[in-house]
Amino acid sequence: MSDSGSLVKISGLNFSYDERPVLRGIDMDIPLGKVIAIMGGSGCGKTTLLRLIGGQLKPTHGEVQVAGHAVDRMGHDELYALRRRMGMLFQFGALFTDMSVFDNVAYPLREHTSLSEELIRDITLMKLSAVGLRGAEALMPGALSGGMARRVALARAIALDPLLIMYDEPFTGLDPISLGVIGQLIRRLNDALGATSIMVTHDIHESLAIVDYIYFMSGGRVVAQGTPDEIRASKDPFVHQFVYAEADGPVPFHYPAPPFGKELLGKGAV
Ligand SMILES: Nc1ncnc2c1ncn2[C@@H]1O[C@H](COP(=O)(O)OP(=O)(O)OP(=O)(O)O)[C@@H](O)[C@H]1O
C-alpha cells in the first residue's frame, strides 16, 4: 500500500512506562477508510497503543504518523487541531451523567467550535438520528439501557465528523443483540463519514463480521495479522486460540508467578 493511502502509519514503535517495556517494535499501516481491530490478551499494550496514536503518550523509539504527520513532533496547537479530528469512545462510553442525551452529544461542538446554538442543535439531532436515538434527546443517561448509552457515546464521538475514530473495547458489558447493533453502527458510521476506525476489542466474532483487517498483539509485539478471511483460515496457534477461545495456547491464562509448589512449600516451611 502506498503512503498516500494510509491514515495511520506506525513504524518501529517502542514504548516503556519508566523502565518497563510495553510495546516492542510495532509496525502497522492503516489505510484510509478502513475499520481495523486490535486484539490481544489483557495487559499486552493495546490501550497504550491508542494513547500513542492520540498523542497522549510519546514513543520511546519509533514513530506514529497520522495523516502524514509525526504525532510526537507536533506542537501544542497542531496536536490540538489533530485531536479535534479524532473521535474517541472509551470503555463503557462514559457519558456525563448530569447532562441530557442532547447535551452530551452537543458537548464537543460547544467546546471545540464557535457554531451558533441553532446549528449545534441541527448537527446534534443529525448525529442522534444516525444512531437511531433522535427521539431520546431529552433523556438523562440514567434512564438509558447499556446499548442506548453506548449509542449516545458513539453519536458524541462522531459529533465533529472525525477523520479517525478510536474505540477502546466498545462491546464490553453489552448483551448479544446490542453488541451486534453497535458493531454494525461502527461500520456504517465509518463508511458514511469516510473515516478510519481503530478498535481495541476482545470480541473476535464481532470483529470478523465488521472489520477489514485484524492485528493480534502479544507481549508488546504484533504476532499475527490479516483480513477476516485470512484469520478464519489461519493455522497460526495464536490466532486459533483467539478464534476458538481456548484457555491453553500461546496466550498464557496465568499471570506470571513463581511455581505453585515452591510457593506453597515455602509458606509451609515458615
Ligand atoms: N500509566 C501507567 N503506568 C505504568 N504502567 C502502566 C500504565 N498504564 C498501563 N500500564 C501497564 O502497561 C501494560 C499495558 O497496559 P495496556 O492498558 O496498554 O494494556 P491492554 O492491552 O489495553 O490491556 P486490557 O486488555 O487489560 O485493557 C500493562 O502491564 C499495564 O499494567
TrEMBL record:
It comes from the Bacteria. GO terms for molecular function: ATP binding. InterPro entries: AAA+_ATPase, ABC_transporter-like_ATP-bd, ABC_transporter-like_CS, P-loop_NTPase. The keyword DNA-binding does not apply. Keywords: ATP-binding, Cell membrane, Membrane, Nucleotide-binding, Transport. Residues 8-244 form the ABC transporter domain. SMART domains: AAA. The keyword Nucleotide-binding applies. CDD domains: ABC_Org_Solvent_Resistant. This is ABC transporter ATP-binding protein. It comes from Rhodocyclus gracilis.
